[in-house]
Amino acid sequence: MISSMSRIADAFWRAVAYCMHPRVIALSLLPLVLSAGLVFGLSYFFWEAAVDTVRATLDSWRLIDTLLGWLDYVGAGGFRSVMAPLLVLALALPVIVVLSLLLVALLMTPSLVSMVAERRFGELQKKQGGSWWRSLGWSLWYGLLALLALLVSMPFWLIPPLVLILPPLIWGWLGYKVFTFDALADHASVAERRQLMRAHKLPLMTLGLVTGYLGAAPAAIWALGVMAVAMAPFLVLISIWLYTLVFAFSTLWFTHYSLTALQDMRATKAQGRSGLPLTELITEPALEQAKPQVVSLPPFSQG
Q1: Which partner from 40, 171, 192, 290 sits 20 to 30 angstroms from 298, CA to CA?
Q2: What is the predicted pLDDT for the residue at 13?
Q3: Alpha carbon 201 to chain centroid, angstroms
């Protein structure tokens, strides 16, 4: 456990240092531009329709109508006009998070893994256990599962303690699956990746949980309430940038930890192969040569 914790801490500080590298900062701009452009393009064409649909749905629910009537009674009638936009933003936020993660995994992760490997693991053999297309399919599949889990768990977010537990757990599980696969795709074989993910499941899940809470932190900027609707374009851009940085850091953290664990695992296997018992190192021909030779003496002749 101590060894795992020291590896986690070492990989953490290395990831922090790498995040300040100009190459990493430059790489983060492409996912930011693409995700921001996609989000603003979709909002330009579908924002009004989405808000109208949510508002019509809320008006059809008697319980919500009663709640809004009570808000009008206590002088908070202005909340009625922003409730539908806030719900649209709340539903769009998980999509923005998954989109940012997928773009980082596809556009940044290969370059980040290569940079870490060149600087620290130049002698580590590449066994190409995961192709680019397989990584894409893996990320999309687990991204969809995470979105489904978020949608199913949304009713439980109304319970105050669970809203602080469930989303980070889901993000952590998603990060554990996606970042570990991408970090080992080039260097580990399929068997090595599966063995490492089983042997280091608890430390990797710890990394995932921490990055899950880091990924949930940018959502705090939406706690402005009514002001969040007026500042939505600016807040969307800031949140996408923060998510990009968090996922870039997570990629580096998982890469440093995973490649170190892979290197140690291979070294342990090599040591085990070279440390066989002596009886197994002696071959049959050697045993034959080691047998005592019977020397035939000439018959004793009496003189």
Answers
A1: 290
A2: 94
A3: 13
In the chain, which stretches have pLDDT less than 70?
1-2, 58-59, 61-82, 219-230, 232, 273-303
Each residue of 193-207: pLDDT tens digit? Answer: 999 988 898 899 889
CA atoms within 13 A on the CB side of 201: 4
Q: Judge contact between 177 and 124, C-beta under 8 A.
A: no
**pLDDT, position 222:** 63
- Distance in Å from the first CA to the final CA of the chain: 83
Q: Which two tokens stand for residue 47?
A: 């924002």
3-state secondary structure string across the chain: CHHHHHHHHHHHHHHHHHHCCHHHHHHCHHHHHHHHHHHHHHHHHHHHHHHHHHHHHHHHCHHHHHHHHHHHHCCCCHHHHHHHHHHHHHHHHHHHHHHHHHHHHHHHHHHHHHHHHHHHCCCCCCCCCCCHHHHHHHHHHHHHHHHHHHHHHHHHHHCHHHHCCHHHHHHHHHHHHHHHHHHHCCCCCHHHHHHHHHHCHHHHHHHHHHHHHHHHHHHHHHCCCHHHHHCHHHHHHHHHHHHHHHHHHHHHHHHHHHHHHHHHHHHHHHHHHHCCCHHHHCCHHHHHHHCCCCCCCCCCCCC
Residue type at position 192:
E
